[in-house]
Design a protein that fits this description.
It is built from 22 helices and 16 strands. It is α+β, with helices and mostly antiparallel strands and 723 residues long. Strands 3, 4, 5, 7, 8 and 11 form a six-stranded antiparallel beta sheet that branches. It has a four-stranded mixed beta sheet with strand order 6-16-14-15. A two-stranded antiparallel ribbon has the order 1-2. Strand 9 (211-214) and strand 10 form a beta hairpin. The radius of gyration is 33 Å and the shape is elongated.
Length: 723
Amino acid sequence: LTVMMRPLLLFILLALSTTVVSLDPIGQMTERRKQRTEEARLAKEEAEKVEELKKQGHDEVGHTAEAALLRKHQLRKKRRKGLLRRKERDLASVLFPGVSPEVYMPKEEVLMYTDHVNSKKTQVPFEFYELPGCPAPKMTESRRKRQRKNLGARLQGIELKPAPYTMKIKEDIPCTPLCQSNIDIKKLRWLRKLVERQYRIHMTLDTLPVLMRSQQLNYAVRGYPIGFMAPPSYTGLDEDEYYLYNHLKFTIAYTNVGDSDSDADAGVHITGFDVHPISITHEIPASGLTPATEIDTCNAEGAKPVANDPATYLKLKAGTGKAELPVIFSYEVEWIETDLPWEDRWDVYLIGSPDDDIHSFAIINSLMIVLFLTGAIATILIRTLKKDIAGYNDMQSMEEAQEETGWKLVHGDVFRPPSTSPMLFSILVGTGVQIGTAFLLTMLSCMVRLINPMHKGQTLTGILVLYVLCGSVAGYVSARVFKFCDAKAWKRNMILTAAGLPGVLVGIFMILNFFLHMAGAATAVGFFMILAIFALLVCVSTPLVFVGSFMGFRAEKVSVPAKVNKVTRYVPKSPWYSAPPVSFLLGGILPFGSVCIELFFILSALWLHQIYYFMGVLAVVILILSATCAEVSIAMTYLQLCAEDHRWYWKSFWNCASAGLYLFLYSLWFLSSRLQLVGVLPVMVYISYMGMISICFALFCGAMGVMCSFVFVRTIYGALKVD
């Protein structure tokens, strides 16, 4: 064996010696220093070039190489990924990890899809084909295959339908009349209302949202308005005048794949999707509009290019004595070749968005709160508790023990189950643990790229599915807590745990959905979709809750280190600042404060249609929130026990659950300061959804407080020598 092992040992020694010789720490440090110096020099040169381009008046939103450089410089921090060694990446890999570009061949039909028609002034969107206009094109097999809908998209009312505009790769389309629509008086009033509330139409092409760009004003905004309103100072009339955009000029940017000079049939990548809406009064043909009809303002020989001209604006007003307004809708398509890589096509959509440093400041703010609380908890555990436990255990006589005051005297009542609504208490704790588990698993799925938050409805689908699959967690925790409370109605506990929170949320959603149906909103959910959600809860979630409850009731009762006295100890009166509800309001400030900065960006993504993709940051913030809830609950429970108040169960829940109240109040501030909602229904939609979110947030924080307080109380009283 020694003879056989000798060559192997020699080979290992030789490999190690080669590795040691090749490792030159001084040389590696020198190389890294040179690399950092070169990176700093390149960054300085880029900054100087950017300043020079700005002085020359170049815009940031165009298709030019200068505009691409300005965008790349502004978004340089968003391109960096990683925790310790942040490497620069393109935004396509950040927003859509693992997605490869689609190659289109010349003359291939490319599909454009319609999205919601929505407004920041109202949260009641409509479908594109509810507007007066051209009908939807015929559905083909290829168009059906490209449409993919998930559960979250259906609940949000997102249904991508093919737009009526047809286009082919690299084929410019001049002004083409599409259809004629006769708009009655009722529809005209509705359109004027939509224009007044600044509704915008959204479309997508190759997953790119349509953009309105202005190189003169240096701005880019998603979607285009239905029309515009001119004030009396502009028109000279006594009241506002409304106009309709009935002509769309699409500009599609592309990049050739390979060498376009040597191969004219090479495929292309789509890198831009722009629209320029125009209001123009087309001549209405007497014989009706047909594919061969020529219109002087559009496709007739010698017709001028279609442009916005105050003399030819299309008024949203029927003629005198007429009951309808005939409108011809038209469009044109222009393809332009650019040098912009496919990986950088999302840069323009993030121009003007908050910098990543703000998210870093949010995490630092939350960490400072956690460090402060950790110091307070460490002081309690290391100094005060250790000293109290050692002094109590060293007492020699009963007289000395009776002279003690504080948390040590309530050891006979601290584990007394809550006498007020133990059923409700166990259900709330179990449901809160289920919410936290489902949300944490969703964030982890986003971080490992199982869920992409940029795909519409995927995140909501993940939360719902994982919440349903975590039903056994709620059943198990609720059963263990209910059994600890010495309760007997285990069947009722099982059913209410499965149907409690879903019943409340579905009830609110059903009432809201009724009003959305009455308003004809696109977000109104159909009857069969509601049946599908009901079946998901009944057939999947409820059995899992029953399984978890069965396992929880079969398990042994949670053991405690001290016996419960037969007679309940008298609770002295607490000062006003440490008694409910003041203590509840004080306890919820720090958990809410740890997430308030990141909450602003989340609400902006939900209600202002901004892009949010910081799932790693959100996961860290959730962990910090959990730590904050744990430490706040421990600190306030200790202070309560020191005041000889042994009724800590419900108080530990509400001390942290009150953060949900602060979240709801913050949402009201966001409504009044950031949103400009018009009408009763949009406000009701906003308050209803934020109320449901606040309830879930409160349940999660309260459950974290109860679980951590129980571990804390069990630990400190387990260290006492109690008969």
